[in-house]
Structure formats: C-alpha cells, structure tokens
Amino acid sequence: MRHVESFAEGRPDEVTGLLREADGWARTLAGAMGQLEEERLTGTDPAEVVRVEVSGTGRLRALTIDPRRLRDLDHLQLAQAVQEAIVAAHHTMGERLEEVVEGLTGPGGASAADPLEGYIRNVLRGE
C-alpha cells in the first residue's frame, strides 16, 4: 500500500513500486481463486428434491435428485426445482466469494475509497 499512497499523492516516480504492488495483489487474488475452485458449495430447491454442488467458481460438480420425492413432480416442476437448486448453489458461491475478497482486502475493503482516486483527480485537474 505504500506505493499506492505515494502515487496517489502525486509522486509518479513510484510507478515501478505501484506496478510491483499491483502484481502482488494479482498473484494473491489468483491464488485465492485457485483455492476457491477446489471448494464445493451446495444448494437445494425449497422442497429439497434436487441438490446441486458447484465449485467456488460456479462450475457444476454434481446434481442429485431424491428418487422418492421425484414421483411427486412432473417434468416442468422438476426443471423448475433444478433451476432453483442451481440458483441457490450460485448464491452460496457468491457469498463465499465475498468472504474471500473481504479476506484479501480486510473488513470493509470492498467499499473502501479507490487508492488511485487522488492521482486521477490530479490528472483531471491538469496537475
């Protein structure tokens, strides 16, 4: 963060350090996304007939249908249950992704001010 703050204060000689920091952030994010890919997150339809597992990046890993409860559904209801389970799993994945991002940026990091905002203002004012 040291280089970002210097850069935002209008010291463009810190570009090399800023790029090094950005590269570090990108590597950290890539590592976190790699770990997230290995996670399995689940979702079910409201009646819990269909259960879906997705990876942390949203890839469908498994779809299970309770055969005892399947008899109560026609093909349209089954399709709706599958959709609802997939949406629920993706919702769980989104929550997990938010946790990962917060872990990388710290609490409230996603809503923190843009670290380059000062520099951009200076450029727009012609300084």
Structural class: alpha+beta
The number of E-state strands comes to 3
- The biggest beta sheet, please? 3 strands, antiparallel
The gyration radius over C-alpha positions equals: 22 Å
- Identify the strand order in the major beta sheet: 1-2-3
Please, what is the average pLDDT? 80
How far is the N terminus from the C terminus?
23 Å
- What string, H for helix and E for strand, traces the elements in order? HHEEEHHH
Give an overview in words.
The chain is of the alpha+beta class. It has helices spanning 2-8, 15-38, 67-70, 75-105, 117-125; strands at 40-44, 50-55, 60-65. The chain has a three-stranded antiparallel sheet with strand order 1-2-3. A hairpin with a 4-residue loop joins strand 2 and strand 3 (60-65). The radius of gyration is 22 Å and the shape is elongated.
Structure, briefly:
Helices cover 59% and strands 13% of the residues. It is of the alpha+beta class and 127 residues long.
